[in-house]
Automatic annotation (TrEMBL), chain B:
Keywords: FAD, Flavoprotein, Oxidoreductase
Biological source species: Winogradskyella psychrotolerans RS-3
Coiled coil location: none
Protein name as catalogued: Nitrite reductase probable [NAD(P)H] subunit
Matching InterPro entries: FAD-bd_OxRdtase, FAD/NAD-bd_sf, FAD/NAD-binding_dom
EC number in record: 1.7.1.4
Family: Belongs to the FAD-dependent oxidoreductase family.
Keyword Transcription listed: no
Cofactor(s) for this UniProt protein: FAD
Segments forming domain FAD/NAD(P)-binding: 3-285
EC top class named in words: oxidoreductase
Mitochondrion among keywords: no
Entry GO MF terms: nitrite reductase [NAD(P)H] activity
Length: 529, 434
């Protein structure tokens, strides 16, 4: 909760946390693997890049695998959190800060200065780190690597290797294992391999990770992307339709049935990295009420921003004349406003009593969006929206949300803010799914009668910063828009109090003051409302 | 405005204060010498194990108390003057009350062992015990071995704590099997094996004779009663039960036995003085319950009830069906209704016991052999629903019904293996052979 570097009440570093010799060897292997990457970054010209790339990634993966096997398989099955608040890396100690700074620097270079990674500009050959990945890129798609290919490869390696570690850590828990296998599968297949193969089959198609849904995939409806789809015949149109259906049809249905976890902790790549490589940092997310307030303002601002921006993007390349194409600017704006109004009216009609004073904030947000859209429509010109050049608007959105928030802060700050700060504070997709989850879903975390002992393991391990204990100790189910359903609160609970489940909507939200186990008359008296 | 003073900021006192605040505008003061803010005592072990920091054991943020106008006073009450309704603090100041609630919890038992007050001998109950443990057992170099005396819930937690820092533990248990006064034999034996699997040196039917000191007054070794064996160690954990923490009211005129004597309204013999939680002792035990219930849940329930009485809706403490839970190293335990071990088991109580082949899961179902009425269940390694068993107990279901519908009570995470069919099969076979 606090940022103070107070390593519990421990006076000495507990010895049990020392690592075994085998782990030291594994750690060294991993470091050598990383060192090869560092040498490449500083332009060492390796004679046989394919061999050195294989060696490097092999050492990194092998190191993590051996290290984790030694850490978990030598002990009985169970919760393995001993010492997480003593270790420097996972308690905002020196190692935590060092890793945070390295990751953040990497993201800044990746997004803004890819030439330092060795990206060949204007047709020049790649050098440095990126050139090390050329052989793999050639193997998969026959083209040179880009900074995104390097990033994608490392990202996938991280999810696979740390996913394996996570599976071992929770080898008694099938829910954890299955969802980890799922994110590993979606990352390797959908995010990494399929787009490369799609390029091989049809190299005009824009890069499309099928599981990346608007608004997380903020550029899918941009002009170049849509043109890319439209100019590629049936397959392109099918993909574009899939993209639209994903957000408007598939997503609400799946979230209704299973909660937003179906996406956030079973499919999504950002979630996948957070749950695997980021698992060691989950306890760092702030559980303060003030953090929750900040979260609600930030994430919904991003959502408003991304809706308006996307509308503006689409709007900017639509025409005025319905003879050219039926979807004119006027029709489009009417559709958007009509849809938003429909959602807003439905929520106000059916869910007003659940929302309480939040209804007011919802209404303010709604009217701001509508006002912005109308202002855009009535002040916009052919190439200027909000008096700004349309292209500049789009790149601003890409930089501030896509790069800085999701990458630099979201992942770079894992060891400082916890592993889900992007998902919690910034992801517009999480905001939409969360809204669906809160309003209209069968998912909840059920609390088990009066069994809670307020120990706080659940809150401590919640990566989304939900104060789970606040609900559990009142015997109240947890129905929160931010919950990604990772299930760790349930896993670490020492009294078997929490269970993620899909059940009927009725009685899902059950505020109680007197817990089960006490006098039934008293429960009736106090809980009747 | 009426001034309610609560001594003790544990779960009982804090629950009471919260509920009084919901119901009224009374002035509320909570007095404690142990900690500035309410924390979950049951979570102290996780601080030593590094799962959490101490601040994470505090269920409410620090602004909560001011916002709810609950005053917190740090101080040690050394005397209660009931005629003038005054508390005298060891620090020298005083505090007036209109109504006083004693919610001071427990303290570890000491049975007069030679050496029981040496440096390095401790209970595991208060926040200060945790600090003492950090001093004497920070790691396996400083603490070469720890000996735990007393095989109950706190003893096994202390063993788990020390084990997390690779400190060798010898665990002395008086009974011939772990906690078998409470647990039926099959369960108790499974836990024995689980303890040993964690490389904890479990010594059953073994008593402590004396604790030896080195030249500086620190623990050097313990002597075992039965064998006379001397075990070198640096820490001795005394976890042979707890006793009400009420020394400070001995001369106040408030009636005490082992705890503060209360009636069903949680009133003491002195008007406007009440006692709740671990330190309260019922004149007559309620049902199968003990007169003193040193359990988290009962403390909370007493707090919930007494708030009604204090706010004008006089109400008896009338707890519902018994339930409890614990965790033995990696094995979770829940109980609903009554299942007796060796102690106090009624003649009519019959058990059905099932254990999974992996030796980490088992259940024991207790029923009345005359009427077949379901009496209670112990479940190890399989989570079950409180609500369902509470309902079945109220409905006085028979044991066949419970066994056939056991899957309704399952509370395991999704995708976990289910054992209801196997259990039912075993139950049916047992009936056929019986």
């Amino acid at each position: 909760m606090s940022n103070k570097l107070n390593h519990s009440m421990s006076l000495a570093k507990p010895d049990a946390l020392d690592i075994s010799n085998k782990q030291k060897v594994a750690l060294s292997a991993g470091v050598i693997g990383l060192f090869i990457l560092a040498l490449a970054l500083f332009n060492t010209n390796f004679p046989n890049k394919a061999v050195f790339l294989t060696l490097s990634l092999g050492l990194i993966i092998g190191g993590i695998v051996v290290y984790s096997r030694e850490a978990y398989l030598s002990k009985l099955e169970g919760i393995k959190n001993d010492g997480v608040w003593f270790k420097s890396i996972s308690s905002r100690g020196v190692w935590g800060w060092i890793v945070g700074v390295i990751l953040t620097t990497f993201y800044i270079v990746l997004y803004f200065f890819p030439k330092y990674l060795g990206l060949g500009v204007d047709g020049a050959e790649n050098t440095g780190l990126i050139s090390l990945f050329d052989p793999l890129s050639h193997l998969l798609s026959g083209r040179n690597a880009s900074q995104w290919f390097v990033y994608g490869t490392l990202y996938t390696v991280a999810i696979l290797a740390f996913g394996y570690k996570f599976i071992l850590k929770y080898r008694h828990n099938r829910y954890q294992q299955l969802r980890t296998v799922s994110v590993m599968f979606f990352q390797l297949g959908f995010a990494f391999l399929i787009p490369e193969f799609m390029y091989v089959m049809n190299n005009d198609l824009p890069y499309y990770d099928l599981k990346s849904i608007w608004p997380l995939n903020y550029y899918i409806f941009d002009e170049w992307s849509v043109n890319g789809f439209l100019s590629n015949g049936n397959i392109g149109i099918a993909l574009l339709i899939f993209g639209v259906l994903s957000i408007f049809v598939f997503t609400p249905i799946l979230t209704y049935k299973y909660g937003k976890r179906w996406y956030c902790s079973w499919v999504c790549g950002c979630g996948g990295l957070a749950e695997t490589a980021g698992d060691s940092f989950r306890q760092l997310s702030s559980k303060k009420m003030s953090a929750w307030k900040l979260e609600r303002w930030l994430i919904h601002t991003v959502l408003v921003f991304s809706i308006v921006m996307t509308a503006a993007m689409v709007y900017s390349y639509l025409g005025y004349d319905k003879n050219d194409f039926w979807l004119t600017r006027g029709v489009f704006i009417s559709l958007v406003i009509g849809f938003l109004t429909l959602v807003f009216a439905a929520v106000m009609l059916f869910k007003r009593h659940e929302l309480g004073k939040d209804a007011k904030y919802g209404a303010i947000g709604f009217f701001i969006v509508i006002a912005l859209l109308l202002i855009m429509h009535y002040t916009g010109t052919t190439d200027h929206l909000f008096y700004i050049k349309a292209g500049a608007l789009r790149s601003a959105y890409g930089i501030y949300i896509g790069s800085i928030f999701s990458g630099v802060i979201g992942t770079g700050f894992y060891p400082i803010l916890g592993n889900r700060s992007w998902c919690r504070f910034g992801c517009p997709m999480a905001a939409i799914l969360g809204f669906q989850q809160r309003m209209f879903s069968k998912f909840r975390i059920t609390t088990n009668g009066g069994q809670c002992i307020s120990c706080g393991n659940c809150s401590n391990s919640c990566e989304m910063g939900i104060d789970v204990r606040h609900y559990a100790q009142k015997g109240e189910n947890i129905v929160r828009s931010s919950c990604v359903g990772c299930g760790i609160c349930s896993a670490v609970c020492p009294r078997g109090v929490l269970k993620l489940e899909n059940d009927t909507m009725k009685g899902r939200i059950n505020p109680t003051e007197i817990l089960l186990g006490n006098d039934v008359d008293l429960m009736d008296l106090v809980n009747q409302k | 405005m009426e001034h309610i003073v609560i001594i003790g900021n544990g779960i009982s006192g804090v629950t009471l204060a919260r509920h009084i605040r919901k119901l009224s505008d009374k002035k509320i003061t909570i007095v404690s010498v142990e900690a500035d803010y309410f924390f979950s005592r049951t979570a102290l072990m996780y601080v030593y194990m590094g799962h959490m920091k101490f601040e994470h054991t505090q269920p409410y943020e620090n602004w909560f108390w001011k916002k709810n106008r609950i005053e917190l006073k740090k101080g040690y009450v050394k005397q209660v003057e009931t005629e003038t309704k005054t508390l005298h603090f060891a620090e020298g100041d005083t505090l007036q009350y209109d109504k006083l609630i004693i919610a001071t919890g427990s303290k570890p038992n000491k049975f007069g062992w030679p050496g029981q007050d040496l440096n390095g001998v401790m209970g595991m109950y208060h926040k200060q015990d945790l600090e003492t443990l950090e001093t004497h057992a920070p790691n396996k170099d400083v603490c070469k071995r720890a000996v735990i005396v007393g095989g109950g819930l706190i003893g096994i937690e202390l063993a788990e704590m020390l084990n997390s820092r690779s400190i060798p533990v010898t665990f002395l248990v008086r009974e011939d099997s772990f906690w078998n006064g409470v647990l039926p034999q099959g369960e108790s034996e499974m836990i024995n094996r689980h303890i040993k699997n964690h490389h904890i040196d479990l010594r059953l039917s073994t008593n402590l004779k004396a604790i030896n000191s080195d030249e500086n007054g620190n623990v050097k070794s313990v002597i075992i009663e039965e064998t006379g064996e001397e075990l070198e160690c640096n820490v001795v954990g005394l976890t042979a039960g707890v006793t009400p923490n009420i020394d400070f009211i001995k001369d106040s005129g408030i009636e005490i036995g082992r705890g503060v004597k209360v009636n069903r309204f949680l009133e003491t013999n002195i008007p406007d003085v009440y006692a709740i939680g671990d330190c309260a002792e019922q004149h007559e035990a309620i049902g199968n319950r003990r007169p003193i219930e040193a359990v988290w849940y009962t403390g909370r329930m007493m707090g919930e009830v007494l708030a009604q009485t204090i706010c004008g809706n006089k109400m008896e403490y009338k707890p519902g069906h018994w339930f409890n839970s614990a965790k033995f190293l990696d094995i979770e335990y829940q109980t609903y209704g009554w299942v007796f071990g060796k102690n106090g088991r009624p003649d009519y109580e019959q058990h059905f016991h099932w254990k999974h082949e992996d030796d980490t899961k088992c259940i024991t179902v207790a029923y009345d052999k005359n009427t077949n009425q379901f009496l209670g269940i112990n479940t190890f390694g399989i989570r079950m629903r409180h609500e369902v068993f509470d309902k079945w107990l109220t409905e006085k279901r028979d044991v066949d019904y419970v066994m056939k519908n056991l899957s309704e009570a399952n509370f395991e995470p999704e995708f976990y293996s289910r054992f209801e069919n196997e259990i039912l099969q075993a139950y049916t076979n047992q009936l056929q052979t019986a």
